[in-house]
Amino acid sequence: MQNTVAKVAVVGSGRSVCAATLARNGISVTLFDSARGPGGRMSQRREISEDGRELLFDHGAPYFTVTNPDVLSVVTEWESRGLVAEWKSNFGSFDCFTNEFINTEYQERESKKYVGVPGMNSICKALCHEPGVDSKFNMGIGKFEWLEHENLWSLIGLDGQHLGHFKGVVASDKNIASPRFTAITGQLPPLDLSLAPELVKLHDIPIYPCFALMLAFNEPLSLVPANGLSFTNSKVLSRAHCESSKPGRSFRHILTWLASGMHSERWILHSTTEYAKDVIAQSGLEKPSKETLSKVGNEMLQGFLSTGLSIPQPFFMKAHRWGSAFPATSIAKEEKCVWSEKKKLAICGDFCLSPNVEGAILSGLAAASKLKGLISTL
């Protein structure tokens, strides 16, 4: 058996708060993520328009709020480092039945809306590069093997490559042991549910899907009275927000504007769960085709145009599917994460506690607490 360099493997950069917490407590961590960069639902999308303009979109979570004091302490530290800022702007709703905007005036709210600066993925980027965290991207996990005699985990990549032995594992994918993984990839789930009785909670967690539509316009949508909107009585849209209005976006935006000589304003639209379910029922769980995404984009844009305001046609439009965006249940409310002490395995994420960024952070902190208390004694 080779010497173990990293004591803990963290799978999924969305759990970077867990990785950073472990590293700060003297536990070396290797973080694996199948994506090109960190973030998960807090990732930022970079697109180039036909005329060469760079466009950045927070196409997942537009912002997050905090109510838990432990999470607030973490976010306050991020704020002091310039990783997050409060998004102070007008938020309201639009009733698609009455065609009226409601509560669009800015007012002080009890729950602050935080965004990453200069993008939502800035938080995960910083945490993935904390001292003691070795981050490896474009590296998906094909199998978690428990070596009973060595009391260690062995991780195997999707390509069959041996990735190392680890004393503990943290994983964040709700589909890691679900038949949904097979339906999407055609492969067996990486984690065998029979390895620990606690893992039975992971079997086929119900989810709510969502489509996101990235839009860029040549001029500000000056007649839209709020930078963040929720929609009621819409079969297609659930919310919309203006990317360009977020703090920390203006400097890079101005540089792009000066370089190109052209202004742009960026918006994100999110679909309703019902609409996304209908599309997936027709197109399947596999990666959606360009034709499907184009159809979704056009239907979502028409929903936005139906507000009756003079919204121009965008010069850029692209849809993205979040196939398992939001968990429909919480599987570990009291523990905050699924924990197997014997196997030193923690499963954490918003599906454990609450379906939002705060729930994911709190679950990640709980997983770190379980592991650091156990592994530090080994």
Q: What does this protein look like?
A:
With 378 residues, this protein is an alpha/beta fold. Helices cover 24% and strands 27% of the residues. It has helices spanning 16-24, 69-80, 122-128, 179-185, 250-260, 273-283, 290-305, 357-375, and strands at residues 8-11, 29-32, 45-48, 54-57, 84-86, 91-95, 100-102, 114-116, 133-136, 141-147, 152-157, 162-166, 168-171, 207-217, 228-232, 237-242, 265-271, 316-327, 338-340, 345-347. Strand 10 (141-147) and strand 11 (152-157) form a beta hairpin. Helix 1 (16-24) packs parallel to helix 3 (122-128) and helix 1 packs parallel to helix 8 (357-375). The radius of gyration is 21 Å and the shape is globular. Residues 1-5 and 251-261 have low confidence and may be disordered. Pfam families: NAD_binding_8 (PF13450). This is Amine oxidase domain-containing protein.
Main β-sheet, spatial strand arrangement: 7-6-15-16-17-14-18
* Rg of Cα set: 21 Å
Shape: globular
Order of helices and strands: EHEEEHEEEEHEEEEEHEEEHEHHEEEH
How would a crystallographer describe the biggest sheet? 7 strands, mixed
Spatial separation of the terminal alpha carbons: 18 Å
The pLDDT mean sits at 90
Q: Which class best fits the helix and strand makeup? A: alpha/beta
Number of helices: 8
Helix content: 10-25%
Which stretches are low in confidence, meaning pLDDT under 50 for 5 or more residues running?
A: 1-5, 251-261
Number of strands: 20
Strand-residue fraction? 25-35%
Pfam families: NAD_binding_8 (PF13450)
Protein name: Amine oxidase domain-containing protein
InterPro entries: FAD/NAD-bd_sf
